[in-house]
Specification:
The structure is a single chain. The chain is mainly beta and 68 residues long. The chain has one domain. Helix content is 10%, strand content 43%. It contains 1 helix and 4 strands; from the N terminus they run H-E-E-E-E.
């Protein structure tokens, strides 16, 4: 297997950020993404001040190194 093939197969696990003001865990605990992807967490905020993660979206990483 060459380096290019390995790059497309390698995955990493991204864990849900810790929520300090919630005693109720979200239903999502972690997400597996490719090295060229990242996770955008979707939060729900309640009037009592609670915040929980209720979903996520996997997006391609924005490669800042190529910007002028």
């Amino acid at each position: 297997m060459n380096q290019e093939d390995r790059k497309t197969i390698e995955k990493r696990v991204v864990y849900v950020p810790e929520v300090n003001n919630s005693f109720t865990p979200g239903s999502v605990l972690s997400v597996e993404v490719s090295n060229d992807e990242e996770v955008e967490w979707q939060w729900t905020h309640f009037p009592q001040g609670q915040s929980v993660i209720t979903g996520y979206k996997i997006v391609k990483k924005n490669n800042q190194a190529n910007l002028p």
